[in-house]
Write the structure tokens for this entry.
Amino acid sequence: MASTSSRNGPEQGPLCDIVIPIWNQPERTGRCLESILAETTEPVRLILIDNGSEAPTRELLDRFQVTRRCAEAPGGVISANASRYPVQIIRNKENLGFIRGVNQGIRASNAPWICLLNNDTIVSPGWLTELLRVGQGNPSIGLINPTSNSLGYNAGSNSPAEVARLLKSESGRWTELTTALGFCLFSRRALYDQVGLLDESFGMGYFDDDDLSRRVRKAGLLCVRACAAYVYHEEQVSFKELPGWKKTFEENRSKFHERWGRPLRILWAMPSANPRSMEIAARRAQEGHWITFITPAPIPDAQWPSQAQLNRLELPAAGWKRQTLLKLIIRRKKPFDLLVSEEPSVSRWAGRLGWLHHARILNKPDEKDLIEQCRKLSLSPS
């Protein structure tokens, strides 16, 4: 892994550096930059990586320089000093890819906090305030995502500002993630000195954020979502304009699975609320697995682990066994790899229907058996 260089810069400066890699998309880029200027109250610096963009985007950044009172600096770096939003633009002659561009920005950063932000995002009122509140409140947190339309919230027709108002009551709360998503990654700048930069062997992008999250967790730190911070994300706009992006996705997924194992999809049939089972499941979710509980028993929110990769489906007692089997056998894009059953009749019927679903079945396993089965399945082809 690459290591970060020593920090240079003024002794006193912005509280947070916002690193934005840019490759074309002038309308989205302008919208993102304007939202930052409109909705950010903390002193920040914008580090913009122009990754070999075409003329319309270069012209947009030129105009942005003028409005921010920018001045050309040696070495192809353009700096601007405004009271709250100094700007640094690093221009690359060609598209070096998302990962290398982000790493350029991390190396240029010297603020105590850093935010890696896609240019196809729109931030909302209080977004950075909430990210800072969560980060400053718990030193065991490594990476923080905001809530987003692509992470934890269905915005419907609401604007980012309207969603931010709706989420205001969640201020200071966070929920644990296994993987922090790369559209908006907030952390202490020192995190990259500890775990390294994004891994450039992932090329143009995909699964670099998954890999970073695993390294952060391996270092004993948490990945979380700040519940009251909201950032709208128009997903994968730039990536899908790259030739061969599907091949890159598949290659990087294989690389990630070889390094860390394949995330499993686990269906867990639980006839009554079992805190011990939920604790065990939460630990498996921390390893990257996705777990869905089906139960006829209401689970009090106080007992339910705050882990984004745990889901629950509470059904009427009369039909929950049948619904469990239907959920297991109905074909989907990502079928279940494993059924964990605490109900013997569900296990028996699932075994008889194995030719329809092909999932492994564990009946009332202890944690050691579950860990071993997850290890074997995770290392096997999908």
In short: Residues 191 and 360 are 38 Å apart (CA to CA). The chain has 13 helices and 16 strands. The two ends are 28 Å apart (CA to CA).
